[in-house]
Amino acid sequence: MDALKLENVGVRFGKRVVLKDVSFSLSGASSTALLGKNGAGKTTLLRCVLGIVKPFSGSVSVFGKKAGTVEAKRLIAYLPERPGVYERLNALQNMLFHAKLNGLHSEVAKRRSEELLEKLDLGSHTFSQVHTFSKGMKQRLAIARTFLTDSPLLLLDEPTSGLDPDGVSVLVSLIKERVEKGATVLIGTHNPYFASRVCECAMLLSAGRISRKGSLEEVVFQKRVRVSVLSKLNEETLKHALNGRPFKLLDQHQFEFCVKDKEDTAKVVETLVAQKLGVVRVEQAESLEEDFG
């Protein structure tokens, strides 16, 4: 069974469409990066999985249960972009309150809380009021809280925000440990270099659409080629012409796709010529950095 499945999901806020026809599924022990620059729709997508945001089209399910239901929420651990910790409680109280909400036995909750606080360099601040914490300390507390339960699906939204290099290293270790235990992890981030430390697979969200998906190497580190043609393009035409290869439609006469090398480029261009699309220009696109800025 898929841990997470989205089918043709669309979300709009007023007249502005934020997600468009988003479809993918995740399963098993895995860690997947949801990449994209700020404003691409990553947070909105994660909130759809939680049931906080309701799509106007399509469906979202968590282990076969409709997103937003009590049954689905019990299977998810969520780290929001902003920590959302309780300022008037101390660090341990934050952990134990979260544990109680999730039905964790008190003795187990206390032991796990102390272990996680120590691991995230908050051991000496166990009884300190959270309103005295720095931004980085609040983020580490939020991370500790997220990893407190044994939820089979983890959603992490910009988890490295406010972390120093040591904090990032601990986060990487926690994610890897959880995947080894069988969890499915989806990480929303604009940082492909962090993603490369914990994820093998990735999806690129651009202007509300999944424009590329595959291995992290395919999505992030391959070169892009831009093609201009005389014929008027649409997504169905390109899906057929490129035989399922991921692409990004720029306008009615231009699109981009990823390639491994010059030989790969030549094969694709040869196919496009055979499709009589009227190829007039083939050039290397700009750096992928623009997708994650």
The H/E string reads EEEHEEHEHHHEHEHEEHEHEEHE
How many structural domains? 3
Helix content: 25-40%
Q: Count all strands and give the number.
A: 14
> Main sheet?
6 strands, mixed
CA-CA gap between termini: 35 Å
CATH architecture of the largest domain: 3-Layer(aba) Sandwich
Report the sheet-strand fraction.
Answer: 25-35%
* Average pLDDT for all residues: 91
Task: Examine the coordinates and then state which fold CATH places here, giving the name of the CATH topology of the largest domain.
Answer: Rossmann fold
Which regions are unreliable across 5 or more consecutive residues at pLDDT < 50? none
CATH superfamily of the largest domain: P-loop containing nucleotide triphosphate hydrolases
In DSSP terms, counting alpha (H) and pi (I) runs of 4 or more, how many helices?
A: 10
Strand order in the sheet with the most strands: 6-7-8-3-9-10
Shape: elongated
Pfam families: ABC_tran
Protein name: ABC transporter domain-containing protein
InterPro entries: AAA+_ATPase, ABC_transporter-like_ATP-bd, ABC_transporter-like_CS, ABC_Transporter_VariousFunc, P-loop_NTPase
Organism: Candidatus Marsarchaeota G1 archaeon OSP_D
